[in-house]
Amino acid sequence: MSKFFNGLEKYIYWTSIPKMGINDIVDILIVSVMIYLIVKWIKTTRAWVLLKGIIILLCIAFAAYILQLHTVSWILSNTMSVGITAILIVFQPELRNALEQLGRKNWVTDIFSTESRQEEQEYTARTLQEISRAAIEMGKVKTGALIVLERTVALGEYERTGIPIDAKVSSQLLINIFEHNTPLHDGAVIIRNNRVVSATCYLPLSDSVEIDKEMGTRHRAAVGISEVSDSLTVIVSEETGGISIARDGKIIRHLDPQGLRDELSVLREEKGQNKKFKLWKGRNRNEKKN
Ligand SMILES: Nc1ncnc2c1ncn2[C@@H]1O[C@H](COP(=O)(O)OP(=O)(O)OP(=O)(O)O)[C@@H](O)[C@H]1O
């Protein structure tokens, strides 16, 4: 009987919640807020895609450990230690940016804000109308253009390669920026929160072999930015006047005015089933066209 009570006592000891003081609660709260802010920050950078890759790698490593796959475990553990150094080098601009933001941030509104960045980035019908009007007009006279619409992934590092503008989006402004032989016509325009934030931006070029050889660097740059972010880019070809859209590493070409408006309307729709359906519908139609 005493053995039973001893066992029970031990069990209760191990399962009981340890005494918590006020400092423990503060400790837990600080760590929770830190984790929340880190995840929130990662979601707005290219690092989000990388984080998903790391989680998959960790799952594989765990499975290899459970199944006693020694070689796979050895390879993974060695690459991971090198990988951490590589991450620090590759994401140096993001890390620097995060530290800079740390000093500028309004922590109180950021923590208690219920609005997500996705909602902030919603484009008004007017903005999308102005963008499509500008693209159609530029297409008619074969003026080359590259217009990037930022979504949840911040494009700060590309914005900084250009000239700051900060002006309300209008078709006249966009047409003026891309006018031949003007100082701002080269490179890309970045749009955020219904404002043109920067012009002459340099975008990363895609090295995808799937891109049609007849497409030059303007189209490659549009695909490139769509590979590293969830942005949507409107491209007007200087050679043909054709309008295309790049998103998710793919390019949708030969858009007519209605097709362009449909593609852009994706940015206005609500999250969920409705959006997915429209996106799929639009894609299918344009894929058939191509
Ligand atoms: N990395 C880049 N980032 C931003 N803009 C770029 C980049 N590379 C090229 N461009 C823009 O594209 C222009 C060159 O376009 P190019 O003729 O090579 O491409 P294209 O895809 O064939 O386009 P188009 O059909 O308009 O000729 C440059 O003058 C510049 O404005």
Automatic annotation (TrEMBL):
<keyword id="KW-0067">ATP-binding</keyword>
<comment type="similarity">
    <text>Belongs to the adenylate cyclase family. DacA/CdaA subfamily.</text>
</comment>
<feature type="transmembrane region" description="Helical">
    <location>
        <begin position="48"/>
        <end position="67"/>
    </location>
</feature>
<dbReference type="InterPro" id="IPR050338">
    <property type="entry name" value="DisA"/>
</dbReference>
<feature type="transmembrane region" description="Helical">
    <location>
        <begin position="20"/>
        <end position="39"/>
    </location>
</feature>
<dbReference type="InterPro" id="IPR014046">
    <property type="entry name" value="C-di-AMP_synthase"/>
</dbReference>
<keyword id="KW-1133">Transmembrane helix</keyword>
<keyword id="KW-0812">Transmembrane</keyword>
<dbReference type="Pfam" id="PF19293">
    <property type="entry name" value="CdaA_N"/>
</dbReference>
<keyword id="KW-0808">Transferase</keyword>
<dbReference type="Pfam" id="PF02457">
    <property type="entry name" value="DAC"/>
</dbReference>
<comment type="function">
    <text>Catalyzes the condensation of 2 ATP molecules into cyclic di-AMP (c-di-AMP), a second messenger used to regulate differing processes in different bacteria.</text>
</comment>
<feature type="domain" description="DAC">
    <location>
        <begin position="92"/>
        <end position="257"/>
    </location>
</feature>
<dbReference type="GO" id="GO:0106408">
    <property type="term" value="F:diadenylate cyclase activity"/>
</dbReference>
<keyword id="KW-0547">Nucleotide-binding</keyword>
<keyword id="KW-0548">Nucleotidyltransferase</keyword>
<dbReference type="InterPro" id="IPR003390">
    <property type="entry name" value="DNA_integrity_scan_DisA_N"/>
</dbReference>
<keyword id="KW-1003">Cell membrane</keyword>
<dbReference type="InterPro" id="IPR036888">
    <property type="entry name" value="DNA_integrity_DisA_N_sf"/>
</dbReference>
<dbReference type="InterPro" id="IPR034701">
    <property type="entry name" value="CdaA"/>
</dbReference>
<dbReference type="InterPro" id="IPR045585">
    <property type="entry name" value="CdaA_N"/>
</dbReference>
<feature type="transmembrane region" description="Helical">
    <location>
        <begin position="73"/>
        <end position="91"/>
    </location>
</feature>
<protein>
    <recommendedName>
        <fullName>Diadenylate cyclase</fullName>
        <ecNumber>2.7.7.85</ecNumber>
    </recommendedName>
</protein>
<keyword id="KW-0472">Membrane</keyword>
<comment type="subunit">
    <text>Probably a homodimer.</text>
</comment>
